[in-house]
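assembly run, all chains below
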Amino acid sequence: MLLTRLNHLIKIFLILICFGLVSGCATTQTTAGDPDPLEPVNRASYSFNDTLDVYLLKPVAETYAEYTPELVRDGLTNFFDNLAYLNVVLNSLLQGKIDQGLSDATRFIFNSTIGLAGLVDVATPMGLPEHEEDFGQTLEAWGINEGLYVVLPLHGSDTGGNLPNLATSFFLNPLTYVTGVVLFPLSAVNIINKRANLLEATNIRDEAAVDPYSFTREAYLQRRQYLIYDSNPPVEGYDDIFEGEDGTAGEESGVLKIE
Amino acid sequence: MRALTISIKHFIAVFLLFYSACSPAGEADAVAVVEELHAALLNVMQQAEPLGFQGRYDTLAPVIQSRFDTPLIAKVILSRYWDELDEQQQNRFIELFKRLSIATYASRFDDYSGESFKTISVEELKKGRQLVKTELISPKSKPVRLEYLMHPNEGNWYIISVIADGVNDLSLKRAEYAVIINDKGFDNLVGELEKKIQELGDSSPKS
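ok done. output:
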């Protein structure tokens, strides 16, 4: 038991070292310069994760999704989301979002109690919506750039600046303190349930993407920006893409006459 | 003579009033274009099964063709590679991209469970462009923020990008296609897109 705890800590320590390395060379992603300097390593991790997914995780998740009643899936999603919610509470408060932090704390309390240990989301209809906050967003709010795009084996997409979130979310999740006998099966269920919830999204990716790795990276990084701005990114950024990298503004549309 | 001058003045006054009331590229027009697309999508969702993939494709084609500024989109997506192509290649890419867009919509909007679209607001951007903010509301899941980047051209509004929950479709494609052109060349990209269009048609279960 102690050994597993130690293993976890060592893993996190190593990740924090990596964070130190990758966030040290923070750049703005996706537009200027090389958005993905770690690309070769990232692609290797992505391939690894994808293989594991295609041959193991996805088939299990699909079977799970097919045979598990919606109600049970919702209950499990609520349960695990609730356990992970203390991390959101902490980060809301650390970002100075006091009202939101209080709302999040109340949400956690209500769902854990009235919501039957988190199985039922009673908080949302009560006007306490779910928020998405993590330590990476907190660091961004404190002025520390998000860092480089990384793909970690098993964990998947992340940014250097958000890696410490692995630590905060780990320590703030009650599951961490539960014995291995209960923890492992519960974790397995959690992973399979989450994968099942993402089946639609990955199907879209598989359908739409010509290069799934770049697609995932772009979508992920844009989503991070969206979360950092709490769903209200500055709209001035949207049409930057039309200003042209070589200075040619995309003004003359060359719209062909429509037949 | 005086009566003529007065009536001409009246005529001009009325003309100007009329003209400003229907000023080209007004805010309402941009919203109308987006709502036209949404109406077409809803229609196709509700008739998804009887139409099948091809039916949905054919129904959506006119709207997408006329309301998206595909040539500009194509140019921005290929960005610095655009000028390296000759006119024939450029036209080929535009045509291909148009077909891919229609096929993607036809494939994605293939069932209906009570969804609806809601227009929320419009924001002014640089150079006369506008952002129409809408939401796709579904009874079964969280609403999806859909924002349409619009630009005016010759009195009409065109959609130039769709941003879904903060993810800009244009940026996404630009990043992807740049990788392919860089590594394998333009012809290879064309091949991949043709394949993608084919897959969209084949994989749609209700075709």
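Residues 19-24 of chain B have pLDDT under 50 and may be disordered.

The two ends of chain B are 71 Å apart (CA to CA).

not gonna interpret more than that til we talk
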